[in-house]
Amino acid sequence: MLFDWSKISRSEYPPDRLDRSKYAEFLTNFLIEKGKDENYVLNLNAQWGAGKTWFLRRWAEEIENQYPVVFIDAWKSDHSKDPFLAVITEIQHGLIDKTDKSLLKSPFIANAWRMIKSVAPEATKAVIKTKFGVDIDKATDFISSEGAADIGAKLVEAAMSAHEEANKSIEDFKKAINSWLESVIGSNRGYDYPLFIFIDELDRCRPTYAIEMLETIKHLFDMKRVVFVIATDKEQLEHSIKAVYGVGFDSQRYLNRFFNRTLTLRKPNHYEFIFEIVSSSVILQNHLGNKNNSWFIVEVGDSSYIEQYSKILSAISQVLHMDLRTINQWMERIEASIANISARFDFIFLALVLSVNCISSEKYNYITLGKLPVSSERDNFFKSMVGRGKLISESVSFKINGQVLGVSFPIDDYTNTSNSLRVKLIKLSIIELFYILWSIVIIDDKVDSLASTIKNFSRHLHQIDIFEIKDNAVLRAIILNDLKDSTLRLGDYADIVELACLLE
Fold first, then answer.
1. Same-domain check for residues 154 and 226
2. Best label site of 37, 279, 316, 428, fewest CB within 10 Å?
3. Is 5 inside any structural domain?
4. Which residues form the KAP NTPase domain (predicted)?
């Protein structure tokens, strides 16, 4: 089978930008062979942010026309007491959709569903209550009564009888499912073995429910020609199991009982993760895709601007050692901020201030009070935010166009010189860029500051390194020119940031 995930899917799942289709293709071929004659349970392990839900759903959609496919969101059924019913209900829905309508009313389909229901734990309780007059759920209320011995004997007898009936029902149930599956495969729709059952979000469930789900799969669904793909954050699931059995419990070994093998999806790097967020955000695309919203040259063709901004945002996130959860929170706060600003603002400065707030409220307060250390201490200021982690010296590149400053510059009160500045590629560290932007945002009269800045470098226009001299004076002038009409001050940015940070 060849999978092409380069375009949006039928169900509107976005294109695959991380080349993950090859994993689904590889696993499908493997599970087809394994599922021909045996039962197989694969654990798809992925940390938060690795895209396991997207991967699982896109994979299920890819093969649903060739193989019977059932998709179960375990988190949605977590409220129920019975994971067996959650699984079997989804299997029923999945198989009915793929069963020839002429067979749906046949005796063996009706019998299959009767057998299915007979295996449910709630049904077992009903058998005990009907045959022996003992309500399992209420039995403990009478254990201390005078009839405790009789009830105890009844419970033992009831349990043994129910166990025997359950064992027989389980075997009948497996035969019924296999017969039903056989009818689907033989319905001339092009389906083939095995039955693929995808289970997602198990690690988000209550620990007891997750354990019961795994036990159900192991003991009731160990049927030939059925394969399970169970997506989890295995580390998180191990913690959940320890919450039930105790800290010293070997949860890793316990989990390995349920899975034949585990495949771990690679976690996306910061750039890949941010690129996916920007690519799926209308708010971000509407703002970032407008070249008039930036002081640097934005390549708006295709997804170039998304790549451009994703690199900048990725550099910020790496300097501050953000994990994927923090990045996701940060990006949503950026979206919320953009949605609430009507005045002209600097996107990168906003993103930087929000990032500092995500990492250190103490440093954020220091910045928004208009305090920043001297240049020699600036690296240490950022390093203190990342604790013991090594400060990553991330740099970003921009193309800036000096022609936005006008056709000529004043050298003195009487003389002008033509503007010979053109497009220039500059490279700055994130820390450098932050301090330049901060020092501009705090200026009250940006028009006057722009004139002074231009005057300071205009007599040096013909020097080869004009863009680098005078503390990046040309860059400062270009940013000042972009923000000269903005009504936003540092306090206004702080107000927006603090509102956005209500999103926890």
1. no
2. 37
3. no
4. 20-331
Q: How many domains does the chain have?
A: 3
Residue that the structure tokens 């693929």 belong to: 196
Residues 287, 394 within the same domain: yes
Taking the alpha carbons at both ends of the chain, their separation in whole angstroms is 43
487: left (phi over 0), alpha (psi -120 to 50) or beta: alpha
| Residue linked to tokens 């231009």 | 454
3-class secondary structure per residue, 266-301? CCCCHHHHHHHHHHCCHHHHHHHCCHHHCCCCCCCC
d(CA 131, CA 164): 14
On whether both 245 and 335 belong to a single domain, the answer is no
Q: What three-state secondary structure class fits 200?
A: strand
Same domain, 391 and 421: yes
Does residue 11 belong to any structural domain of this protein? no
pLDDT in tens, 22-63: 999 999 999 999 998 899 999 999 988 888 999 999 999 999
- Cα–Cα dist 249/404, whole Å: 66
Q: For 418-475, how does the pLDDT look when each residue is reduced to its tens digit (9 = 90+)? A: 888 889 899 999 999 999 999 999 999 999 999 999 888 887 776 656 666 656 889 9
Residue 397 main-chain phi, psi, to 5 deg:
-115, 145
Helix (H) or strand (E) holding 159: helix 148-185
* Cα–Cα distance list, 478 to 409, 430, 473 (Å): 13, 18, 9
